[in-house]
Amino acid sequence: MGLKVSREKDFSYLIEDGHSIARVIGTENIINQAMGTEAITQLLNMAELPGKIGIPIGLPDIHQGYGFPIGSVIAFDSDNGIVSPGGVGYDINCGVALMNTGMDKKTCRLHIKDILKEIFNQVPVGMARSRNKLSRRDIEAITSEGIQWLYFRDMATEDDINKTDYNGSIFGAEPANISEKAYSRGMNFFGTLGSGNHFIELQFADQIINSEISEEFGIHKDMVYVMIHTGSRGLGHQVATDYIQKIRDLDHNKRLKDAQLSYMELSSRDAERYISAMNGAANYGFANRQMIISLIRNALKKVMGNEFVEDESELVYNISHNIAAFEENDIEGRRQKVLVHRKGATRALPPESTSGYYAGIGHPVIVPGSMGTASYVLRGVGGNSKISFSTSCHGAGRVLGRKMAKEKLSPELIEKELEALKIEMKFASTSALTEEAPESYKNIDEIYNSIVGGKIAEGIARLKPIGVIKG
DNA sequence: ATGTCC
């Protein structure tokens, strides 16, 4: 099973096992780090799926996931291809929102303890459930309307809608395709953060990389932003569980090398149902992040009083990194309509392919680092459709599994490390300290250099943390 | 990631 690695060009490597081929984007060090891990085996397994167009791509933050690695993208023929829940992941429409606070770094540091405390009061984190539980009917409406539902209730502005991926509302989410169990989990956890790598951070712009585009994104040197990383909570998890269970015993899935790659043919009724349910979960995910944005605006208003100007708490962008979508891409010399599966991978449309608010500019691509380290905002560059179906990475990417992190790292030491960096913290549990420690992740600067060097996206601004809230 | 196992 010897693997052959060849350098395609700078920051781009082809990996072959004599049967399948895949591309990985990254520095030589990133490639060496990934080689020999289960993630690469998973990436090559993906290449064996039917109806694939082009080859699977591993982004520099690639690491082992359920069936498909996290930090990967694959496209299938939109007519004769397939859809696989494992290619989207359990946390459907996990993603990141970035919002301006209108506050500068100095003011923020002065009030950071109170701000974190109040956000912690308003936003349930970790295992906590929603404070004001919505009805079954409301949750169903949210899965079909996305953030529109919040707009009609004064919890989202028109500007928020304009600055959300897919405008925060994907058409064609048929409520009947989502199970009662999923709705019931959705009722308990709407507007909650969750745990694991999910977080709320207050960050300041410490480096403006491209001043013209930073201005367009509303990112200014030393101003403070809130970054929110969460997804569709129990609802999305249940949708994934339901459909993975449903297709497990299909003949073509029993023949697979790895059962976790289970799929549905796009021509099947099950595929239609899954895509509809996935879109419903995605709408819930967009609305969940928006709900948290609304709660954070309330918290800032309460703590900062007259100093907080609501009009200045504008969204930069709210983007998904776990979703499958029908798109046109340049593959093997021609434009083809494909179903792109992005798992821990962020869409990075170049300026000319971006529509809506950021048309001609390119939408913000948000790449959070690990706890305590920098985060980057980028935009897609022309020609990236051919390289990675216009897809960037979604974060630093794990180097230590959760269990390993707990064994190797000490929470006290990590806490001291963050204190030394002048980062205020609020944790619902201590397990996040080791599991999410910078030591559990790859170096975000190297990930950033890989994406820029690989000509997928260009840097716009770098943000650094002042305060962090984790489940 | 996940009412951290139906």
From TrEMBL:
Q: Which GO terms describe its molecular function?
A: GTP binding; metal ion binding; RNA ligase (ATP) activity; RNA ligase (GTP) activity
Q: Which residues form a coiled coil?
A: none
Q: Where is the signal peptide?
A: none
Which UniProt keywords are given for this protein, alphabetically ordered? Answer: GTP-binding, Ligase, Manganese, Metal-binding, Nucleotide-binding
Listed name of the protein: tRNA-splicing ligase RtcB
Q: Name the positions where Mn(2+) 1 binds.
A: 91, 198
Q: How does it assemble?
A: Monomer.
The record's family statement is:
Belongs to the RtcB family.
Catalytic residues of the enzyme: 394 (gmp-histidine intermediate)
Statement: the UniProt record of this protein carries the keyword Ribonucleoprotein: no
Which cofactors is this protein said to need?
Mn(2+)
BP GO terms, sorted: RNA processing
Cofactor stoichiometry and binding?
Binds 2 manganese ions per subunit.
Under the heading InterPro entries, the entry gives: RtcB (IPR001233), RtcB-like_sf (IPR036025)
Q: What is its EC number?
A: 6.5.1.-
Catalytic reactions of this protein: a 3'-end 2',3'-cyclophospho-ribonucleotide-RNA + a 5'-end dephospho-ribonucleoside-RNA + GTP + H2O = a ribonucleotidyl-ribonucleotide-RNA + GMP + diphosphate + H(+); a 3'-end 3'-phospho-ribonucleotide-RNA + a 5'-end dephospho-ribonucleoside-RNA + GTP = a ribonucleotidyl-ribonucleotide-RNA + GMP + diphosphate
Which sites bind GMP? 197-201, 321-322, 368-371, 375, 394-397, 470
What role does it play? Essential for tRNA splicing and maturation. Acts by directly joining spliced tRNA halves to mature-sized tRNAs. Joins RNA with 2',3'-cyclic-phosphate or 3'-phosphate ends to RNA with 5'-hydroxy ends.
Q: Binding positions for Mn(2+) 2?
A: 229, 321
Q: What class of enzyme is it?
A: ligase
Q: Report the Gene3D superfamilies cross-referenced here.
A: tRNA-splicing ligase RtcB
**A Pfam cross-reference name:** RtcB
